[in-house]
Amino acid sequence: MQHLSIFPILIPLLFGAIMLLPPISRDINSQRITSIVGTLFLLISSAALLYQINTEGVQLYALGGWQAPFGIALVADKVSSLLVLLTAFLAFCVMLYSVAGQDKGGAYFHPLFMFQIMGINGAFLTGDIFNLFVFFEVLLIASYALLIHAGGKQKTQAALHYVILNLVGSSLFLFGLGILYGTLGTLNMADMAIKVGQLQGETATLAKTGALLLLVVFGLKAAMLPMHFWLPKTYASASAPVAALFAIMTKVGIYSIFRVYTVIFGDDAGELANIATPWLWPMALLTITIGTIGVFASPGIKTLSANLVIISSGSLLACAAINSEAATSAALYYMVHSTLASAGLFLLADVMSRQRGKAEDRFVRSRPFIQPRLLGFAFAISALALIGMPPLSGFVGKIMILQATQSSAQTMWVWPLILIGSLAALITFSRAGTTLFWRHNGNVAAEAEPAKTTEIMGIGLLLLASPILVIFGGDISEFTQQAAHYLHDIQASAYALLPGVAQ
Amino acid sequence: MEGLYAFCVGLLTACGIFLALRGRTFSVVIGLTLLSYAVNLFLFASGRLKLNAAAVLGESEQYSDPLPQALVLTAIVIGFAMTAFAVILAMRARADLGNDHVDGTLPAQPGDASQKSGGNQ
After folding, report:
1. What is the mean pLDDT of chain A?
2. Residue B78, SS3 per DSSP
3. Residue-number span of the structural domain to which A254 is assigned
4. pLDDT, tens digit (0-9, with 9 covering 90-100), for A107-122
5. Euclidean distance between CA atoms A502 and B12, whole angstroms
6. pTM, to two decimals
7. Is residue A502 part of a domain?
């Protein structure tokens, strides 16, 4: 179906708007049902889109019938449709979790959730770099409001930093876009990729400035080293469903880095070929290092999972720095794994902290859990997945990244850092597990409440994704390989998208 | 004209960055506003500055690029919404945290030994 590629943007928009209108907006229960139905629709249409892309190839959707490069085009290719499906699945699981009661903390949780999904999907699907900016703003303004959902001092404090940083980031984004438009005369990503090779001399230097400004912005979203300080506090203080949804936010930054610095400023960019690589290398390695230190220093599960997000961002940036098809393929696989696993841990941390009274999620001796078996089992699975132990998907993802290193210098830097990162996670998880499950005193806390059925279903689905990613590992890695090949092949990812432009 | 225009954009950006780096939310919000003004002017200039050139074909001998004008319009709308949000958030933070510092706690002043920032001391 021709219009399938715009559905991932339209469905959340429509459902979000419906939930703001009277009959549904008055009643939380009907909002919950609408949200579940909406995310389910989104999941089905994203799966259908992925199937269609896989059988028929890339879909170009010219909005308003204006042909690229003059109009805005949505490009549904293997990379974007995979990530849209990932977003839809994550949204469905998180929504299942939040309808159990987490959504009552503040008004408009459901519409904001939908608008954030719309922004994320739009950022993945768009083929126009200014439209990417617009969708970034859509997802950001929804995330600002979601972050202070349920209120509290911690959240306001974290939100202030997050909002100010991202507003500065948006200004830099526009500066970068202005420079690129001034030098290239186009904003369509495929057209930019073709035109950037012809730049020379002063114009090329100017375009380089613009391109590296964009790297700063994407780095801020992806929590690349000097811009990562906002992440642990923001993620640790956000309410559980919001933190779990935010697990995909850093991936939007990573995706943009892959899209812009592989397709536009890739091997065929003439004077500007691979301009981001010399910057990405040190930043990626330092990001992994700082994430590892953060993991060791984490006082509670929420901070721990936030620091694991930083490590996974660092590993993905290292893949972007290696800049080969194998590395991009590994990055896509690892992106799916780490998003789902860290979202699962954020939700699990919330269930656990509600059963431990005042100790919450901190690693201190406290009251025992009401459901020690269930929580212990879930904790073990998510720990195994996030550490990267066999037989779960973290192991496969990390192996793929390690195998993608090409020269001995790359191996020498990437292998030890990623392996030490895993070791840090292993040590911290074992310490956390022993304290949380075995060292307790007193009786079950009076205010403790057992996890509700839909909450267990949401977490269960997220954790189940990890073994499924391994069982169907062959098919999935073949798919990511094709997607990576598409990104690195400028004929397919640029020239084929502009039928009117002479080659 | 280009020199003056570039100077204005540069001055606005510099003031914006200076104010955004300050410690109180009010000056930070003003800084962000100045920064977004600078961005809007900059985007407008990315289509090159031309005199007596309409953005519509056939209205004048020369024509100017209409796209940057559309981009500026989008950027103004988004920047306005974001500034409004930042102002409300700053007020909320003032109410929740009891001061208007961006970190939520006032840094200890030299010679101000009796100050209590309520917390770890």
Report:
1. 92
2. helix
3. 2-497
4. 889 999 999 999 999 9
5. 42
6. 0.94
7. no
The Cα-based distances of A4 to A1, A59, A268 in angstroms read 6, 9, 31
Among the partner residues A159, A164, A181, nearest to B46 by beta-carbon distance? A181
Q: Does residue A350 sit within a domain? A: yes
Chain B contact present for A410, CB below 8 A? no
Task: Give the domain B2-97 fold.
Answer: Helix Hairpins (1.10.287)
pLDDT value for A250? 93
Q: What is the C-alpha to C-alpha distance for residues A150 and A230, in angstroms, rounded to an integer?
A: 20
Using a CB-CB cut-off of 8 Å, the residues of chain B touching A136 are none
Residue spans per domain, chain B: 2-97
Q: Which chain B positions have a beta carbon within 8 Å of A171's beta carbon?
A: 16, 32, 35-36, 38-39
The token pair that represents A48 in the structure block: 């259908």
pLDDT at B121: 41
The Cα of A313 is separated from the nearest Cα of chain B by a number of Å equal to: 25
Q: Which residues of B touch A156 (CB under 8 A)?
A: 89, 92-93, 96-97, 104
* Cα–Cα distance list, A377 to A295, A342, A470 (Å): 22, 16, 19
Please report which helix (H) or strand (E) contains residue A76, including its range. Answer: strand A73-76
Query: Of A205, A201, A197, A216, which Cα lies nearest the Cα of A264?
Result: A197
Find the DSSP H helices in A323-407: 325-354, 372-387, 393-404
If we measure between CA atoms, which residue out of A86, A186, A87, A250 comes closest to residue A494? Answer: A186
For residues A330 and A396, the answer to whether their CB atoms sit within 8 Å is no
Rg of chain A over CA atoms, in angstroms? 22
Question: Which residue type is seen at A385?
Answer: A
Q: What are the Cα distances from residue A406, in Å, to A259, A374, B41?
A: 21, 43, 45
